[in-house]
Amino acid sequence: MVRNMVLTTSEIDKLLDNAKLRHTKQRAQLAKMLFKAENRHFTAEQLHKEARTAGHTISLATIYNTLHQFRSAGLLRQVIVEPGKVYFDTNTEPHHHFYIEDDGELLDVERNEVKISTLPEIPKNCNIREMDVIIRLRKK
Amino acid sequence: MVRNMVLTTSEIDKLLDNAKLRHTKQRAQLAKMLFKAENRHFTAEQLHKEARTAGHTISLATIYNTLHQFRSAGLLRQVIVEPGKVYFDTNTEPHHHFYIEDDGELLDVERNEVKISTLPEIPKNCNIREMDVIIRLRKK
DNA sequence: AAGGTTTTTAGAACCATTCTAAAAAAGAAA
DNA sequence: TTTCTTTTTTAGAATGGTTCTAAAAACCTT
Ligand SMILES: [Mn+2]
Ligand SMILES: [Mn+2]
Ligand SMILES: [Zn+2]
Ligand SMILES: [Zn+2]
Questions:
Q1: Is 0.85 topped by the overall pTM?
Q2: N vs C: which end of chain A shows fewer Cβ within 10 Å?
Q3: Which residue is nearest to nucleotide D11 (CA to C1')?
Q4: Which residues of B have a CB under 8 Å from any CB of A?
């Protein structure tokens, strides 16, 4: 998918088709807000506020529904760094995070920026699903 | 602190003294439940249920109060791996975790079992507070 | 346009956690 | 021990992010 600019209408159509989701006003608006050049980390409520500010009429329930649908389609992933709050991430490549605790900001760390040379033995009967590295930061 | 057995009454006294907490029945009961030979990972509600089962009369509010006090005293740390739920950990050494997603179980990974040879550049004006590695597992 | 299906929505429900404020316990002073 | 002050415990209310419910709106096919 092209990602070096705002998506065109036909690119949004394609995105929703690929995700096997019907083309609705709300899904198109959210797709357009989310899938631009830069990756983003955000919560459902932040996105809701942003959509309303942009003049879109969309309920919080639809934000949640759509985010989960995008996630099932592999367009978003979740990041858990704080109790009682879920971040969504447009970067679906395996990667890691800085978390600036002072203001709740997440920053990407490319996978190759953290070189892990030794791994512990995995418990029997288990497979690795994912490995998260979270580097928690405080501002000086 | 001795940790290769159940704590004696005087060891619990010492633990509460060090934490600058008054010696109450509830705090002593919880300390005795928590600080044994093996480290534990648990939620507040799990601990509440366990305390009631052991015949102790203690409210959930006191469980939360005490866990936070123990944490401030450096006797416990929190682990965040799932939305809407906080795990407490009696292992306060820097270390990492396996998280078995199927049954919500946390397992310790010693710090030296994960060798990290390259770290990304830390954003300006920030210091590392902590680094968490969570290896998410699924049962075969 | 009609009919059947999916989506959106407002508001209720949920649930782990925190808060409130009153009763109980602890400690100090006498 | 009695009294006084401070801290702790507690039941239950409140909170807040998320999910659920079920009815209205939008969508798609015929
Ligand atoms: Mn939020
Ligand atoms: Mn719990
Ligand atoms: Zn990211
Ligand atoms: Zn641990």
A1: yes
A2: C
A3: B59
A4: 78, 80-86, 98, 100-101, 107, 109-110, 113-120, 122-123, 125-140
Flag whether A4 is in a domain: no
Residue A63 to residue A119: CA distance in whole angstroms: 38
Domain closes at, from B75, B106, B123: B75
Question: What range defines the domain where residue B125 resides?
Answer: 87-137
B108: helix, strand or coil:
strand
B68 CB less than 7 Å from any atom of strand C: yes
Query: What whole-number distance in Å separates Cα of residue B19 and Cα of residue B70?
Result: 7
Give the span between the Cα atoms of A82 and B84, in whole angstroms. Answer: 9
Q: Each residue's pLDDT tens digit in chain A (140 positions)?
A: 555 688 888 899 999 999 999 999 999 999 999 998 799 999 999 999 999 999 999 999 999 999 999 999 999 999 999 999 999 999 999 999 999 999 999 999 999 999 998 889 999 999 999 999 999 999 99
Do A53 and A99 reside in the same domain of the chain?
no
Where is the domain boundary, B54, B75, B96?
Answer: B75
